[in-house]
Structure formats: structure tokens, C-alpha cells
Amino acid sequence: MTVLAALPLLTLAACGYGSKSDDTGGDAKVAADARKTDGLDSVRIGYFGNLTHATALVGNQKGFFQKELGATKAKYAVFNAGPSEIEALNSGSVDIGWLGPSPAINGYTKSNGKSLRIVSGSASGGVKLVVNPKKVKSLKDLQGKKIATPQLGNTQDVAFLNWIAEQGWKVDAQSGRGDVTVVRSDNKVTPDAFRAGSLDGAWVPEPTASKLVAEGGKVLLDESALWPDGKFVITNVVVRAAFLKEHPKAVEAVLRASVETNKWINAHQDAAKAAANTQLEKDSGKALPADVLDPAWKSIRILDDPLASTLHSEADHAVKAGLLEKPDLDGIYDLTLLNKVLKAEGARTVDAAGLGTQ
After folding, report:
1. Which end of the chain has fewer CB atoms at under 10 Å, N or C?
2. What is the distance of C-alpha 226 from the center of its chain?
3. Which position has the higher pLDDT, 26 or 63?
4. What is the 8-class DSSP label of residue 142?
């Protein structure tokens, strides 16, 4: 089954940073005797200017990807939202990318499983419901209020629609009208709309959530509280299926760098936070202030596990909301190379929850 034709690409909207290409990592150094990986001149890596893509931000800034790729150049492209990155993957202008669950699902189903594979996890959490405390005192007060999500059918939009349904409230998914008014608002403009009083709250990813708190908002719900063990996928690593088949050594090198970056982030939280912010400033021209960066960083968990069972649940939520026909996700994961890397590191391997190669 495929995505409903009327629905735009399901996306995890980024937080307002401009799209650009960046051919050099911040601390990238290539050894004099380095060799090309898989004979490639370059590997093109995509990500969003978003803290939930911290692995890519830090891996770029600290040179982890370039180190593993040797004499093969790590080239970077920064995207604002899922559709543009999916388009870049499909056109071959990006080989590997950090991407949210909804665009991964949509890209896979629209291509009948031919376009991409999820090859690793990257992050969990980092999504909050922030409200105007003068208008909303408790969750039950949301009825009749205007609450923003980043985009129709995006990861947070699906999560909020599912939560609304669980409260017994009715909302038309396409229009957003109902017992709660769901306003689809780009993360770039949501803080301004919130400040102006035209929104009562928003269900959004970091750092937009913390930007709203800095404007006087209050966190009413952290989405992680709704998931078993507080974990749910917010960012995956995906690869063009053809690139995975033709250049597995290059994919393995990027995954080694991803695992090494994640290990470094979790062992050096303050330095990693600073590195991510430095890369954000390089990519967008503007760093995050401490009152936004610090709480946003604390709410994100960096990991290698793709949390495959939660991807399945997120797809089910989109189906129940009427935004997606029941998808066939069999084969969306290929975790063979990730598990090879994890075994070599002496780390626990991960599974695909029955949706791909273990």
C-alpha cells in the first residue's frame, strides 16, 4: 500500500536553518598515507540543522566522518526538511543522510521499497508540548485551543494527532479543525506566532521547544513520557539502496564514524554540545543561546539503536489518523553493517523488529 496521494511528503521539519553545501568538516584531517574508500572521490552526507541530528553535526565538526573515509572526501549538505533530502537521495546528489522516521517511511513506501534503507539509529526524544501557561494550565485545557505542529503529516503532527485521539477528542487530520485546532506552522515562525499570542502552544522538536520556553512557555508534556522506557526514534541514518549495494565499504566507514561519534558525544556531553552549536553556527550563521541550547540538549538521547519497534508504531499512528494507508515496511531496515561495527566495538547488536535484515 502507498501513502495517500493528497498527502505531502511526511517530514520531520527542521528548525529554520538554511540549506547549504559544506565540503569540509570542522576538524577534518586526512592522513598522508590515506586511501580512498571503495575507490570513491567523495561521499555526500545530508542532515538537518537540528539538534536531533547531533551525530551528523558533531561528526562533521570534529572530523569523525572524514577520518573514517580516508582520502575519500566527506561532503555535506544541510536541509530544512524531509522532502528536499528525500529528493536529494532519489536524485543521487546525497548518498547517506540523517532523517526523521516519517520521511523515511514515506520515501520507502512511495518507491515501493526501492529508494532507501535505514542502516542505523541516531537519536531519541527531543520533542515537547509547550504551552502558554496563562491559557493552558493542564492537558485537559487543550480542548478548544490552537496548538502548532511543524507540518501536515510530519513526525510531530502524527504524534499529536494520535495523542488527541487517545483523549477521545475529534480532529479532522487534513484541516486540523476539531476539538483542538491543529495549526501547521513552520518551526522558523512558530516562536514569533507564539509570542504574538496567535498560538496557545506547540508540539515541536528541539530546539524549537526550548525557544518557546525562552519566550515564556511551559513544558506541559515531554513525548518521551508516552513511550516504553522513554525511548522513541526521532532520527535515523538512511542510505540510497543503490549506494548501499554498490559501496558497502563506504557505508560501513560512515557507520563506524557514526558509532564513534555517538560514543564520544555520550562521554563528553559539554564538549559535544559546544561542537554541535559550533556546527549549527557554521551552517546557519547563528548559534543557539545557552537558555535554548542547554535544555534542548538535555532532552535528546544519542544512540545507535534505530528503535525499530517505535518506527512501526509511528506508522500505525499515521494510519489511524487517516494520513497514511497501511504501509508495507518489510525490508526498510538493513542493519547488517551496523551490527558488524558494533560487534567489532564489543557493543550490543540491535534488531530490526522483523522489518528487515537483522
Report:
1. N
2. 18
3. 63
4. G
Determine contact, residues 57/296, Cβ cutoff 8 Å. Answer: no
Q: Which candidate, 203, 192, 236, 227, places its Cα nearest to that of 96?
A: 236
The answer to whether residue 21 scores a pLDDT higher than 90 is no
Q: Which three cell numbers stand for residue 73?
A: 572526501
Task: Output the CA torsion 213→152→108→41 (10° steps).
Answer: -60
| Residue in 13, 10, 7 with CA at minimum distance from that of residue 189 | 13
Dihedral in degrees, nearest 10, Cα atoms 149, 155, 158, 160: -50
Q: What one-letter code names the amino acid at 322?
A: G
What pairs with residue 45 in β-bridges?
76, 96
Question: Looking at residue 245, what is its pLDDT?
Answer: 96
Residue with the three cell numbers 566495538: 345
CA-CA distance, 90 to 104, in Å (whole number)?
A: 12
Sorting pLDDT into bands at 50, 70 and 90, what band is 83? confident
Q: Is the pTM of this model over 0.85?
A: yes
Helix axes 290-298, 269-284, angle to 10 degrees: 120
Strands 42-48 and 73-79: parallel
Label the pairing between strands 42-48 and 233-240: unpaired
- State the cell numbers at 261: 561519534
Query: What is the chain's Cα-based Rg?
Result: 19
